[in-house]
User: Fold this.
Amino acid sequence: MMTLVTTAPVASSTFDTSRVHSLTRPNMVSVGTIIWLSSELMFFAGLFAMYFTARARATEGWPPEPTELNLPYATIFTIVLVASSFTCQFGVFAAEQGNVYGLRRWFAITFLMGAIFVGAQFNEYRVLVTEHGTSISSSTYGSVFYLTTGFHALHVIGGLIAFVFLLIRSTMGRFTPAQATSAIVVSYYWHFVDVVWVGLFATIYLIR
Assistant:
């Protein structure tokens, strides 16, 4: 009887300690995402370097005539994208509380705002090509402009696909901590995309 009584508490104590240890470990999915985003940051750093190098070597106006960027228009869809970071974070807060309906609502709004941004950017491309004759092959400026903003647009589209996947997944079965982790990971990516665009906006539209 003495052995049985003393053994049970020891086993329980060992289990609780290992459980606490597992809860305090960093989530490997989040860590992997941060590492991947670091590599993406280096990729965009290369695009920024390309842009500034082309600008430093330019012998004519920047942007060259007749190219003229629409700053008020770009400012509007920049505000939309930046605001989507807030709605995305509200969705993360809802996910952390286990509120799947709040998550869906805020992420659906974020998806819509991101889609508006992409549509507005493609409309700007259309105007530049049809009204200004600025294409990716028309000049050095056209090349660096479309490469930098185009790669960013592809990343935004990738984020929109992630939102769709997450929204569909949240409707299948019970809402789990794994799904909440997925929401957090997607938010990391979306915030990264927003920050990169703020840098691009300042570089391309504000610094003349």
In short: DSSP finds six helices and no strands in the chain.
